[in-house]
């Protein structure tokens, strides 16, 4: 299947490449199917690209590569929704806000993307009772951005 993407132009994907977010993503509830595409220009960054809307692509990265002490617990309802039974099937990504210069790029640690690698289901989880914010600098030891 061919799709148009925000950063990669027109590409071919297979059904096996598609991640399903049954409830959509907050702010984009009608967008339920995405693919993860590597961003070759920036090592460790990918794009979570809607297969339906060309302009909808989130730059994402593994938060643990920048924040080794990042830690949270998933609710039972999230585990059930994603059919997650084993930790080895969990993949966590954070949506990034890429800035110029790139050293000003921030990660949203308050709302991680959770993936079940076994069944290709995903969900963005909002962590309410946490000190994590929506903007944490990833390349420096700066404090989270206020606001």
Automatic annotation (TrEMBL):
Pfam families listed in its UniProt record: FliW
Q: List the transmembrane segments.
A: none
Tell me where it resides: Cytoplasm
- Domain of life according to the entry: Bacteria
The record's listing under InterPro entries reads: Flagellar_assembly_factor_FliW, Flagellar_assmbl_FliW_dom_sf
Record's keyword annotation contains Calcium: no
Keywords assigned by UniProt, alphabetized: Bacterial flagellum biogenesis, Cell projection, Chaperone, Cilium, Cytoplasm, Flagellum, Translation regulation
Which example biological process does GO assign this protein?
bacterial-type flagellum assembly
Say where the protein is mainly found: cytoplasm
Q: Which GO terms describe its cellular component?
A: cytoplasm
What's this protein's function? Acts as an anti-CsrA protein, binds CsrA and prevents it from repressing translation of its target genes, one of which is flagellin. Binds to flagellin and participates in the assembly of the flagellum.
HAMAP family documented for this protein: FliW (MF_01185)
Family per record: Belongs to the FliW family.
Subunit structure of this entry? Answer: Interacts with translational regulator CsrA and flagellin(s).
| Name this polypeptide is given | Flagellar assembly factor FliW
Gene assigned in the entry: fliW
């Amino acid at each position: 299947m061919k799709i148009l993407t925000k950063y990669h132009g027109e590409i071919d994907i297979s059904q096996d490449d598609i991640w399903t977010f049954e409830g959509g993503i907050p702010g984009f509830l009608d967008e339920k199917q995405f693919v993860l595409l590597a961003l070759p220009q920036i090592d460790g960054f990918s794009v979570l690209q809607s297969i339906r809307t060309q302009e909808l692509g989130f730059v994402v990265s593994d938060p643990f590569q920048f924040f080794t002490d990042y830690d949270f617990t998933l609710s039972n309802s999230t585990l059930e929704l994603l059919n997650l039974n084993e930790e080895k099937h969990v993949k966590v990504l954070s949506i990034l806000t890429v800035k110029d210069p790139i050293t000003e790029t921030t990660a949203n640690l308050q709302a991680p993307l959770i993936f079940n690698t076994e069944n290709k289901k995903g969900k963005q989880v909002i962590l309410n009772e946490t000190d994590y914010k929506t903007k944490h600098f990833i390349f420096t030891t700066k404090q989270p951005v206020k606001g």
